[in-house]
Amino acid sequence: MAGGREIKTKIKSVQNTRKVTRALEMVSASKIRKAQDRMKSSRPYARLMRQMIGHIAKANSEYVHPFLADRNEVKRIGYIIVSTDRGLCGGLNSGMFRRILADMRQWQEKGVDVDVVCIGQKAAAFFRRLKVNMAASVTHLGEQVRVEQLVGVIKVMLDSYEEGKIDRVFLCYNDFINTMVQKPVQDQLLPLPPSDELETKHDWDYIYEPDAPSVMDHVLTRYVESLVYQAVLENQASEHAARMVAMKAASDNATKLIDTLNLIYNKARQAAITQEISEIVGGAAAV
């Protein structure tokens, strides 16, 4: 059995660790409310953008934008992966990475090449070690993310798709369900997937000014940017929720470990006292 001094050192170390985990839990608890407010305020815009683009995609138009045209042969695909910049948030990132890797393997078995664009330090560090082409990355976005910070990496993927280098683009992030549940999501970003929410019984079209290509190019670019921005906000709220839950569990485990170590320490101290008393009694009896 370990000595009393060693056990006291362990107890002190675990207590210091518990202070850190409690502090991180409190920080995430204070930040999650603002992250949820930013996420919820952006959801209506993203939802209406989806409806509008779905309506445009269903229109019977002579001009078909490259972002709307499905390609029969897929030779290369791209992933826009949204992750966190910091760790200590449980299995939030690793769960999403496992799902992406499984999907990547299925495409690679078909002979399809993979390009990756990473948003967040954890995704950049993880996929840099793999045998995939990382086209771009952006990290350290801060608590209040702006669309301007994401435009560069989004444009890299959009340009590659428009030039025909990439045939399909997926957006991967963690969707915020509630404080206890965050679900990894993989959405097809390009080409625009067909929408089942709109009726197809009637034909309609739009009148574009000045012309359809310029208007569609601007609208669809804003559409992609809004979806990626919303994904970043969803992932940020998921990060704070997952970190708060993980640090709460770590603090509880530290408390249980301290109680166990205190019990061991008391037993060791009692054994030492009993041994000293036995030695004193034995010595007195010998005299």
Automatic annotation (TrEMBL):
UniProt-listed InterPro entries: ATP_synth_F1_ATPase_gsu, ATP_synth_F1_gsu, ATP_synth_F1_gsu_CS
Main location: membrane
A Pfam family matched in the record: ATP-synt
Ion transport recorded as keyword: yes
Membrane topology: Peripheral membrane protein
GO CC, alphabetical: plasma membrane; proton-transporting ATP synthase complex
Membrane spanning residue stretches: none
CDD domains, alphabetized: F1-ATPase_gamma
Keywords: ATP synthesis, Cell inner membrane, Cell membrane, CF(1), Hydrogen ion transport, Ion transport, Membrane, Transport
GO biological process: proton motive force-driven plasma membrane ATP synthesis
Gene Ontology molecular-function annotations: ATP binding; proton-transporting ATP synthase activity, rotational mechanism
Subcellular compartments: Cell membrane; Membrane
Family, similarity comment: Belongs to the ATPase gamma chain family.
Subunit structure: F-type ATPases have 2 components, CF(1) - the catalytic core - and CF(0) - the membrane proton channel. CF(1) has five subunits: alpha(3), beta(3), gamma(1), delta(1), epsilon(1). CF(0) has three main subunits: a, b and c.
Described function: Produces ATP from ADP in the presence of a proton gradient across the membrane. The gamma chain is believed to be important in regulating ATPase activity and the flow of protons through the CF(0) complex.
Protein name (database record): ATP synthase gamma chain
Organism: Pseudomarimonas arenosa
